[in-house]
Design a protein that fits this description.
168 residues, plasmid, IS402-like_dom, 54% helix, Transposase, 8 helices, 2 domains, Arc Repressor Mutant, subunit A
Length: 168
Amino acid sequence: MEPVVASWKARHPSVSGHQGAYEMREIVIALLYQSRTGCQWDYLPHDLPPVGAVKYYFYKWRDDGTDQTIHDLLRWQVRESRGRLADPSLVVLDTQSLHAAAGVPAYQQIMAVFAAADAPLRARAVCEAMDVEIAPSNINNVPLKLKRLAERGILAETEQGLFALPRP
């Protein structure tokens, strides 16, 4: 984590040359405390850096993605310390994220269509294969679901609007 914070500090020097009065480790601890407890900023414990300093780094890091990098590094360290791979090899989806709105195909049904297909499919073909009414609401929602599956690596978008199962 320290190299990430040090490189961030090097990329964002203070215009006044001020190096900061607080240890970056203390700033990160304060951010983790606030995130974990959900307390209001003004109620951070007094043994942590002042609220203004913590909020400054929170907003800067949130806007440029440094907070996500720190989060990923900490998660990887915890996983590796427990003898696991840095990245999870399994994803669990709850039933609520698998259910679709009434009349719109569920993710499991979409995956069954792709498992049976021998070529990439468009949203309209997915609707037809599932005997779903070709209605604007279905034609608009299915591509969103297909794109979501492609973003997660479950499907591959071979060309604009054309989806298939990824090759092993």
